[in-house]
Structures are given as structure tokens and as C-alpha cells.
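Following up on my earlier thread - several people asked me to post the actual chain instead of describing it. Fair enough. Here it is, all 261 residues.
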Amino acid sequence: MTAPIPRDLPDIPALPRTHPASAALFAPARAVVPLVRRPLTAAYRLLLALLAAGAVLVGTLLGSPARVLSHFAVQSALLLALVTLTSARRAWSARHPLPGALTGAALLYVIMASLAHHILLADAAPPFSTAGDATGTSWLEPLAAHTLHTVLPVAAVLDWLLLSPPARTRLRQAATWLLYPLAYLAFTLARGVFLPDSPARYLYPFLDVARHGYRNVLANALLLGLALYALAVLLVALDHTRPNPVRRPSKTGFRLRPPVG
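Reply from S.P.:
Thanks for posting it. Predicted structure:
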């Protein structure tokens, strides 16, 4: 004989939940989107990295390497070269793109250096100086300056708009991007203090403490910082509104989209 089935089953303890409910219901979009190789994108970014590195190399050959490498535009170009070279390798090997915080910072610094050059430093000398016409390299100076301040920013913006998916950057990252310009301002002021006898102790005329004083220099730096923050906020807003130029269909033929909710 079998025992009768009890009317009330005893309470069964609930299984412990090791993951939050949101993690069980949703998965990030990048986890389900198939990755593909993008050789054309890799080639474009490799060319962009070589162009940035070549402009910096020519600048260091034309002028004093220590002075040339101290300029914000040159440092921004070096950062752009490293970021685009790594992005080219990831596009070639079908890996996930770099974080938007890193690529956005490189783009922001290059654009800001270009705008500062064309608006504030249009009549100033480039960050390198030639050794004279007798060397036959004087024509490289305007070419390197044009590449550094015009060609690279335009090429970087085209890569961001046409070849990079939206990274969905956050507004708080716009404030984080200001840390490097603040450190560069401190470096520039310290350079002027420790090189009092140098004819180019201050690299930029609007940061020349000897001519304008600390009050006016800090006021100029504040205005540049506000302009840089406004540009960073604009990049974040555009990153959330621009269309995705990279469309990867799933194996079933349907396009995968991020979950709603």
C-alpha cells in the first residue's frame, strides 16, 4: 500500500539567488552581437596612426624634441596614434572596440588643439622650427603643421562618425576628460618657472605669465576649460543621437538590438 498524499505540502526553502534579477533577464548587446573582421576600417585607422606619428616625427626632427613634445597638439597626436593603432588591430582581428571613454578623449583633445590653433594661434609660429633653407627641409614645416592641426582632426572625426559605433558615453566622463588638460596647465606653468632663461619658456602666448600675469593667465585657462567642457558635452550628446554606421546582422537574418527596459 502507498501512503496517502498529504493535503498540505511542507514549506520548501527557496533556492538562494546568486545573480540579480536584471542580470538574469537581460544581457548586454555586445555579448550577443557577432563580431566580424573589418579590414577597410583597420586599414584606414592604420593610415591615420601612421599619419599622426609621421607628423610628430617630422616635428621632432625639425625642432628641439623636448620643446616639440611639450606642445598640447603634439601630445594629442601621439595619443591619437596609439588609440587608432590599437583600434586598427581590434578591427582587423574581430575584437570588441576600445572603450568610448578612451576614444572620446583622444578625439576631444585633437579637436580642441585644432580649434585653439585656428582661432587663437592662427598667426603664431608652429611648434617646430626649421634649421634653415639650406637644409632643404623648410617645406616640411608647413606640411607638418597643416597635418597636425587640420588633417588629423578631420580624419579623426570622419573615423568617429563613419566607422565607429556609438559608445554611449556618460556625461560624467566629460568632466573626467578635463583631468589631462588641467595637468597640462600645471606642467606649462611649472615649465615657465623652472626655465626662466629660456626664450620659449611659455609655449602659448595666452599662457604667458611673464607678459600677462597669473590672474589673466588663469582667466584664459578658465575660459578654455569651459569651452573644452562644452565641447565634451557636445560629443557625449552626439554619441547618443548619431546613427550606428556599423550594422552586424545576426546568423538568423534578424538585426539584433539592445533590450528594451
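Residues 37-128+138-241 form one domain. That should answer part of your original question.
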